[in-house]
Amino acid sequence: MRALFTLLFGASMVLFAQAAERQGAAPDMAQVRRLLWLLLFGYLHFALLWWGDILFSYALCGLGALMFRQLSPRQLLGIALPFYALSQGVEALLDLPGVVTEQAVLAGVAPAADMAEQAAMMDRIAALVAQDSKVLNAGFFEAMRLKLGQSALQPLTTTLSTFTETLPLMLTGMALLRLGMFADWPRKRLKQVATVGIGLGALPTLLALHWLLTHDWPPRAMFAAIEHGMALPHLFIAFGYAAALVLLFPLVRATWLGQRLTAAGRCAFTNYIGTTVLMGAIFSGWGLALGPELPRQWLPAFVALGWAAMLAWPRWWLARFGQGPLEAIWRRLALPRVNPVR
After folding, report:
1. What φ, ψ does residue 341 adopt, rounded to 5°?
2. Which of 209, 225, 252 is the C-terminal boundary of a domain?
3. With 0-12 CB in 10 A as exposed, 13-18 as middle and 19+ as buried, what is 48?
4. Half-sphere exposure (CA, 13 Å, Cβ side) for 88?
5. Beta strands of 93-170 (E only): which ranges?
6. What distance in Å separates the CA atoms of residue 311 and residue 265, rounded to the nearest whole number?
7. pLDDT, tens digit, for every residue of 280-306?
8. Residue 329: half-sphere exposure toward Cβ, Cα within 13 Å
9. What is the pLDDT of residues 126-171, one digit of tens each?
10. CA–CA separation, 237 and 205 (whole Å)
11. Domain shared by 43 and 27, yes or no
């Protein structure tokens, strides 16, 4: 889903530029202001609420994507897709020897040095888990102190480690919007993209899932699959999901659920931060501190709670104010002399 969200973020950059032009603003300068404010929001989100922020990375990569805005859709795809495939493929190949070594270690046939390295890796993982747990269980100000004291540059290092995925996907989303995928493509073409994309992505994903399951989720292999190994299947699935959503939206737009999904999408920024606040209030030390208490099998119930919360309020709010609260603030900061769109 992250790949799909990144494609849509790239598409939103084109839509914002078009809206800025219609309202008499310089689109590139407005976009720079928009992304710089997002950079600040992202760092505050990391420092105050959650270590797993993605807004900071999206803002930095968005500034990079902005440099390519004037290219044609074909040029954007000609840069983005080869760069994505090459960078992810090379990283996956570099991960492969470690995965093979790990299997030898787990089978008990590896040299002593490899055994020691695997043990050291497991110790590093345990230390990171302990560090994250300490932050999760701390009070609000103590958690902030721990994050800023131990990993103040984490949003930047995360961006550097993921930009080979994020930037090309943003460029691809920009190209797909300008090619008309989200508005003008015939249903037959969308069905083909949905079928082929989901099919090509799902098969290797299911095979990898089966292998990981039958090998008891080996950590090095898990990291390799999540970070780079499944990048191309995830891209295919993202294309398929995007096409499927464009196909389905006209069928559900007028329904009770469709209206609420549409409203939730228009309040995506507020919902993103809001779900952090909601889940933090439930699980973190500054809230109910249920993180260490609840059994893992209860987590789907809290996922459903998050979904319900994201659907519950936006339609009511938009009917009265036109934009989500954080969306309105963000837009006024990016376009200070432009009234909010109702």
Report:
1. -80, 125
2. 252
3. middle
4. 25
5. none
6. 9
7. 999 999 999 998 878 889 999 999 999
8. 8
9. 999 899 899 999 999 999 999 999 899 999 999 999 999 999 999 9
10. 10
11. yes
Rounded to whole angstroms, the Cα distance separating 142 from 27 reads: 41
The encoded tokens of residue 236 equal 């295919």
Is residue 59 within 8 Å of residue 35, measured between CB atoms? yes
Domain that holds residue 319: 255-342
The pLDDT of residue 308 is above 90:
yes
| Per-residue CA distances from 273 to 45, 52, 55, 62, 306 (Å) | 8, 12, 10, 19, 12
Tokens of 224: 């390799």
Residues 107, 112, 117: CA angle, nearest 5 degrees: 85
Asked whether residue 323 falls in the same domain as residue 270, the answer is yes
The dihedral formed by the CA atoms of 278, 281, 283 and 285, expressed in degrees to the nearest 10: 150
Q: Which of 218, 234, 252 is the last residue of a domain?
A: 252
Residue 294 DSSP label: S
**Distance set, CA 110 to CA 2, 107, 219 (Å):** 36, 8, 17
Please give the tally of structural domains in the chain: 2
pLDDT of residue 143: 94
With contact defined as beta carbons under 8 Å apart, do 135 and 285 qualify? no
Q: Are residues 7 and 113 in the same domain?
A: yes
Read off the tokens for 82.
Answer: 């080869």
Query: How far apart are alpha carbons 92 and 19 in whole angstroms?
Result: 39
